[in-house]
Write a structure and sequence with these properties.
Number of domains: 1
CATH architecture: Orthogonal Bundle
Structural class: mainly alpha
Shape: globular
Number of helices: 9
Number of strands: 0
Helix content: over 70%
Strand content: under 5%
Amino acid sequence: MKKMSISQICLIALAAVLNVVGGNIALILRLPIYLDSVGTMFAAALFGPFYGMIPGIASAVISGVTTDIYAFYFLPVQLIIGFMTGMAYRIWKPRTWKETWKIIPAALMISIPGTIVSSAITALVFGGITSSGSTALVQLLHGMGINLTLSVCIVQGITDFADRAISLCLTAAILSALPMPFKAINKGEKHGTL
């Protein structure tokens, strides 16, 4: 790993803040999606898989201490999202709204490994009940007679894919709105004062 510049550190810190803010919005509004990985995806798209994991770690710790204790337990999912997003951006590079078709395969690639881990955490550690708005859907399916683990897997698969697709759209929008000096940061280019 190369030494990070001050600008890169600031963007990674901003990405962690985006995660915390997005996660709190979803938590307060009881949305069935999470919005707590937009920053992780942004950092991974800009800097690659390993740097993409840093905002996920930071935001899971900050949220776990301040607003949502469940965030600690889902830290492995943030690591997976950061790594898989970095890999997806290397393959598909969905950086603009003109390339939104690339978001579907990228969202699948990112969500499947994370869904496996998050379903296991939700079912085995929490018995299907977390702070997320998707908990109501899990309980609805379970109340209809579907096994709890299967209920969690179904809901987690659907909500994770939707969340990753929405987060990728937001990431593409943020990336396309970045000024040129910030876009050059991840390539190691000298551009202006950054």
